[in-house]
Specification:
about 650 residues, alpha+beta, five-stranded antiparallel sheet, 20 helices
Length: about 650
């Protein structure tokens, strides 16, 4: 052996050193493979597509999502990204990878693949060498279809919620107590009159609360802070107008028992409050009308006696002139009282109605001459009849009273002169528009508007104008029944009247009457030139003793024989006992025991050839009065005069004789 010889131990040590060196070299070789395996495991764990492209747009690295596109058809490093993923032969336009190679900046975008129709979010990152040069790009592609669908569903849900809140006029709010963050929906901002904003200050809302309701608001807030729920009604003042809202709120408590989150709704109930107020007003008017009608009915019976006997005395010969003057005063006072009673009956809808088919425009035109005189030269009357169908089924005298009352009211609102405009047009009102007027039926209406440019009225005054005995005139200048009469007449005709007014800007009254489907009557109406009596026998049924005796005296003075009964049952007994003598039956509509309607039904069934005439002071029950018009019977309204009674009786008897 040349050179120094090695001992066995030295040889073993050298072999161990060489083995360690080999293991070190093997370890260095395993580390890149482990790193690569770790990288691939990490990439494959990501549920998105991760790819690396070189400058030639070859796919040089991909996780297993990329292999779905590449591995089965192409080999990595030999397939272009646009070929593998988009099935194109040329790079996409624009190519975002090439743009990152050019700029060195990261890009993010969303793209819908025309191949599979899936929308993906793409993030493109540059891969730099040690000198900062872009040598590759990495693309992170995430399927966001479900997210987009969820976002679209959320947007649809939010839009539906906004529409629902807008239609129901309900807004929502939330408060995170710990963070002090508030959320207000768009609708609540609209209700309150604030610009939309998720963290509007509570003070901005409080400023709009009516001063008289702020204590209620503060008490509600204190209850919420104690963890209690609230339900309260408040008024807001927005641009000088009152708006009613209902607020409901509840509290979510933290584990500590302290409020953690508050949420609630705010509903605009202005329209409902106004409707309820109109309904209360209507109910109040109905109650007052019943009272007024009852008083007027009883009073009309007394007036019938007073005016009837005054007329009898004045028609008698040999009455002392001094006494005649006093009786004349009684008669004139009775006439004035009768007009007042008729106004009360008109308001209360208890006045006897004699409807016919009328053209409302012709009724107004027929009053033009009188209106011109009543209004005076300082009022310019502008009448526009319009071209609409204006047939109504109504009592002409009552309609004239409505028109005159509205025009006189307008005149009084323009003491220094002005313009009074009357116009007729058609209108269609549905159930919603008539919700506060339950007596009116949806359909076509004739609208008569009466507009002035006078002093106008305040909102508080406007709420009370249709109440009876309410007047702004000086004592002695008005009864306060003008507009109340208008209200009662229109309601009795199943219509409605509305008023709009502003101070110093005038007022407009709108009268809606249902369009009539009936044709105008064309029959002849005979009128006797003079009131005549007769010798026939008349059966009189009337429960008021004084009225019965007065009517009996009027008829007997005219030559008739009168059989009188105090109710319907007695009248039927008398008729059965004196059937051959009785030529006509005169009945009150409302009587005890057996009323006028039932009495007439029995007469019509057993003795249809005997004519019946009715008397009535008021419309106490539509069912009791409607049969009179339906049967085409004569009706005498109380209080009546001697001539009216005798003329009606004579006409009925003569008509029977001619038949």
């Amino acid at each position: 052996m040349v050179g120094s010889s090695l001992t066995k131990q030295q040889l073993l040590d050298e072999l161990e050193r060489l083995r360690a060196k080999v293991e070190q070299l093997e370890g260095l070789q395993r580390e890149p493979r482990q790193t690569e395996a770790l990288l691939r495991a990490t990439l494959n764990a990501i549920p998105d597509l991760i790819t690396v492209h070189d400058r030639d747009l070859n796919v040089v690295l991909s996780n297993w999502h990329g292999h779905e596109y590449v591995a089965e058809k192409w080999q990595l490093g030999m397939v272009k990204c646009y070929k593998a993923y988009m099935e194109r032969d040329e790079p996409c336009e624009p190519c975002h990878a090439l743009e990152v190679f050019a700029t060195g900046k990261t890009m993010r975008l969303e793209m819908t693949n025309p191949v599979d129709g899936i929308t993906r979010e793409i993030s493109v990152y540059p891969v730099l060498d040690s000198s900062g040069k872009v040598i590759m790009v990495t693309e992170h592609v995430r399927d966001i279809s479900r997210r987009i669908e969820a976002e679209q569903a959320l947007r649809r849900s939010e839009a539906a919620l906004r529409r629902a809140q807008k239609m129901s006029q309900v807004g929502s709010w939330e408060l995170d107590v710990a963070k002090g963050e508030r959320f207000w929906s768009e609708e609540i901002c609209r209700i309150v009159g604030l610009a939309p904003g998720n963290n509007l200050a509570f003070e901005a809302f409080l400023e709009r609360v009516h001063p008289d309701d702020r204590d209620v608001m503060e008490q509600g807030w204190q209850r919420l802070q104690r963890g209690e729920s609230i339900d309260q009604t408040l008024r807001l003042v927005i641009d000088g107008k009152i708006k009613w809202i209902r607020g409901i709120a509840e509290v979510e408590l933290a584990e500590s028992g302290q409020p953690a989150r508050m949420s609630g709704i705010v509903q605009d109930i202005t329209e409902r409050v106004q409707m309820e107020e109109r309904l209360r007003q209507s109910q109040k008017m109905e109650a007052v009308g019943q009272l007024a009608g009852g008083v007027a009915h009883d009073f009309s019976n007394q007036l019938q006696v007073i005016s009837g006997y005054a007329e009898e005395i004045l028609s008698s010969k040999g009455v002392d002139s001094a006494l005649r003057g006093g009786v004349q005063e009684i008669a004139e006072a009775s006439a004035r009282a009768e007009r007042l009673v008729r106004q009360l009956l008109l308001f209360s809808r208890r006045q006897v109605v004699k409807p016919e088919s009328l053209r409302l425009g012709e009724v107004v035109t027929g009053l033009m001459g009188m209106l011109t005189r009543v209004l005076g030269e300082h009022i310019h009357l502008d009448w526009r009849p319009g071209n609409e169908t204006d047939w109504v089924w109504a009592d002409k005298g009552m309609l004239e009273q409505v028109i005159i009352n509205l025009c006189v009211n307008a005149r009084d609102a323009m003491p220094d002169g002005g313009v009074l405009a009357l116009a007729i047009e058609g209108a269609v009102l549905d159930a919603d528009a008539l919700s506060a007027y339950p007596w009116a039926k949806p359909g076509r209406f004739v609208l008569l508007s009466v507009r002035d440019n006078g002093c106008g009225m305040s909102p508080s005054l406007l709420e009370t104008i249709f109440e009876p005995f309410f007047t702004t005139k000086q004592p002695g200048e008005g009864t306060g029944l003008g507009l109340a009469t208008v209200y009662g007449v229109v309601k009795q005709h199943e219509g409605l009247v509305q008023a709009r007014s502003r101070l110093r800007e005038g007022s407009t009254f709108e009268v809606y009457l249902p369009v009539s489907a009936r044709e105008a009557a064309t029959g002849d109406h005979e009128v006797e030139d003079a009131v005549k009596g007769g010798t026939e026998t008349i059966l009189l049924g009337e429960d008021e003793d004084q009225v019965r005796e007065l009517a009996k005296a009027m008829l007997e003075r005219a030559g008739y024989t009168v059989l009188s009964a105090c109710d319907g049952r007695e009248a039927l007994d008398l008729l059965a006992a004196n059937l051959e003598q009785v030529s006509l039956v005169l009945l009150d509509v409302v009587m005890p025991v057996t009323g006028g309607k039932e009495t007439y039904a029995r007469i019509k069934k057993s003795w249809p050839e005997i004519p019946v005439v009715f008397m009535s002071g008021y419309r106490s029950d539509a069912l009791q009065m409607d049969f009179v018009a339906q049967e085409g019977l004569k009706l005498i309204a109380k209080p009546f005069g001697r001539d009216e009674l005798l003329l009606t009786v004579r006409e009925t008897l003569d008509k029977k004789r001619r038949a």
